[in-house]
Design brief:
Blueprint lengths: L2 H4 L4 E4 L6 H31 L6 H27 L6 E3 H34 L4 H4 L2 H26 L9 E2 L6 H5 L7 H36 L1 H30 L6 H24 L2 H17 L1
Parallel strand pairs: 1-3
Antiparallel strand pairs: 1-2
Length: 309
């Protein structure tokens, strides 16, 4: 179906965060600062991993890719949300809405898969250190990255192919800060119950499988280390703590969103902000503040930059 010709609705309206003008200004300044810090923080991690000679291990290669995937969903949604805070009419075109949904699910699915790859890297490093370089080969790392992008693409296309054929001819208000797939589906002027169930099953199943695999991976690591050495458990926990925090921050909002995917309440907006604004900022902070090697590499690169200018 040609949406442009047959659909009455050509744009959607974000209800977003409503309130007095002073509150809107406060949100504008706050989210602008957070988004700026998010972009700079993730670019700093990617640049450090790329140009530092001391960060050539598989762990930092995957970390650099994670920073890129963290920054992308925020870039797709946050600038629009920030400009809408100062706009009288918070609108987005039909195809702009489609693009937001496509990329949010694309990068989200890719990041889930990449987190599993990072958990596997930690397993090999902690439980099979003598075979680390052999197992974590450049070919395997490239395969992990390609697989994460492939799964993200399949995940988003499986939903968008059905979504793009929906007719919109009535309500066009989205009670969120960006085009959230479950909420937009409800605006279609046909019965969408089956499609709603498919969206829940698709997103929920991917999230559930990834979360279980991560949980099993970290459990196996801790059990293996405890059996080998009682003192090694504390060291393993110290090494895994940053990864576990990042996984919790990523899947926490996902669990709530999948549990109440079609609800329309203020909590949805808070979760959306946490997922697209807060989490992409916290991840680089967690990995840099808790990683001494990363901090030393940043200081070294900064010293080289200062001495060369």
């Amino acid at each position: 179906m040609d949406l442009k010709n047959e659909s009455v609705v050509v744009e959607f309206i974000f209800l977003g965060f409503s309130g007095p003008w002073k509150i809107q200004i406060f949100f504008f300044v706050t989210f602008s600062l957070i988004y700026g810090a998010t972009v700079m923080g993730n670019i700093l991690v990617m640049a450090t991993v790329t140009f530092s000679s001391t960060l050539r291990s598989p762990l930092y290669f995957l970390l650099g890719n994670l920073s890129f995937l963290d920054m992308c969903p925020s870039t797709v949604t946050t600038p629009k949300m920030i400009t809408d805070l100062l706009a009288a009419h918070k609108t987005i075109s039909l195809w702009g809405c489609m693009a937001q949904m496509f990329f949010v699910h694309f990068f989200g699915g890719a990041e889930m898969t990449l987190l599993i790859a990072m958990a596997f890297e930690r397993y090999v490093d902690i439980c099979k250190p003598l075979h680390y370089r052999t197992i974590m080969s450049p070919r395997l790392l490239s395969g992990f990255v390609i697989l994460s992008w492939t799964i993200g693409f399949i995940h988003t296309m499986s939903q968008m192919i059905l979504k793009m054929n929906l007719p919109f001819c009535g309500h066009n208000s989205v009670d969120n800060i960006f085009c959230d797939l479950p909420l937009v589906i409800k605006l279609a002027c046909i019965e969408t119950y089956t499609l709603e169930l498919f969206v829940i099953a698709d997103s929920g199943l991917l999230s559930f499988i990834c979360f279980i695999l991560l949980l099993v991976s970290y459990t196996v690591i801790l059990v293996t280390v405890r059996q080998k050495s009682s003192g090694g458990l504390a060291k393993a926990l110290s090494t895994l703590s940053a990864h576990i925090i990042v996984v919790t921050l990523f899947f926490g909002p996902c669990i709530f969103i999948c549990a109440w995917p079609f609800s329309s309440f203020t909590g949805n907006k808070i979760l959306a902000v946490f997922y697209t604004v807060i989490t992409p900022l916290l991840n680089p902070l967690i990995y840099t503040l808790r990683n001494q090697k990363m901090q030393e590499a940043m200081k070294k690169l900064w010293s080289q930059y200062v001495s060369s200018t």
